[in-house]
Specification:
The protein is built from 9 helices and 4 strands, in the order αββααααβααβαα. It is mainly alpha-helical and about 270 residues long. The chain has a two-stranded antiparallel ribbon. It has a two-stranded antiparallel ribbon with strand order 3-4.
Length: about 270
């Protein structure tokens, strides 16, 4: 197709779009070293992102209704879906700038706002200004962490995160609420000591998202390659262990990952000295 025909087609598309209430998305991509403008978005990875966003929204609604166990589970579901959208995009070669920004905004809702509001509704709301402060610290740190990640995405080592990833931070908060709700601790059953611990935990987990500590991203795992048969057996055993006591085991895994960054940072510093 000649340049004149391309220009005519582009003008025709513009006329059609002028009749619509919503313009089509257009972004610049690099193909063989040349900048090309492409219209539209990739459907498959953005479906997973939308599902993760809905899970975060559902968690907020459930928390407002006092259904804290359901809200915590929805946060974990959002985490699984969030981990799939990026991998699906890489496996199908459907990465895009739109997808990156949409994923970041969805993460802010599902792993920034949702866990903080659920924690606030569960125990921090009755704890006065300290509860407000801890909740805001977590939300602000989640926003700062995502903003920093977006600006450094092209230059950072893909095998590591700088600071605790927001889905992992949300898993710690959601896991704590899930375990306590499973024990019947919510509403008037939450003691002042537990509320104070929750406030400190929320603030500390928030701060871990912005500290300069490296966490393994596990993005180097090759999902398309062959693995020994024993790996599949270990995965089955892992699912079986989680099913025994989901809230406590998932909380344990989330806490272990959250602590792995500071522990490895201290270990590397002691080895270097």
């Amino acid at each position: 197709m000649s340049e004149v025909e391309n220009e005519i087609e582009h003008n025709n598309d513009d006329r059609r779009e002028s009749l619509l209430l919503i313009d089509d998305h257009e972004e610049e991509v690099s193909i063989n070293g040349q900048k090309v403008r492409r219209r539209g978005i990739y459907l498959l990875p953005n479906l997973f992102t939308t599902a993760a966003l809905f899970a975060g929204f559902y968690a907020i609604v459930s928390g407002m209704r006092g259904q804290f166990e359901t809200a915590a589970i929805a946060i974990f579901v959002a985490g699984v879906l969030d981990g799939m959208d990026g991998r699906v995009a890489r496996l199908t070669n459907t990465q895009s700038k739109f997808g990156e920004q949409y994923d970041s905004l969805a993460d802010m809702v599902s792993f920034g706002v949702a866990p903080a509001l659920i924690m606030f509704s569960w125990s921090l709301g009755s704890f006065g200004k300290l509860g407000w402060a801890a909740t805001f610290i977590y939300i602000a740190c989640a926003a700062l962490r995502l903003a920093r990640f977006n600006t450094q995405i092209a230059t950072t080592d893909k095998n590591y995160f700088t600071g605790l990833a927001s889905p992992a931070a949300a898993a710690v908060i959601a896991g704590t609420i899930w375990v306590c709700a499973d024990e019947g601790l919510f509403g008037g059953e939450v003691s002042s000591v537990l509320s104070f611990f929750s406030a400190v935990l929320t603030a500390v987990i928030g701060l871990l998202m912005i500290v300069n500590i490296r966490y393994n991203s596990f993005k180097g795992i090759d999902l398309r390659g062959r693995v020994p048969f024993v790996v599949m057996i270990l995965i089955v055993i892992g699912f079986g262990l989680v099913s025994v006591d989901p809230p406590r085991i998932l909380l344990g895994i989330a806490l272990a990952y959250a602590l792995s960054g500071p522990v490895m940072a201290v270990y590397r510093r002691t080895q270097a000295s």
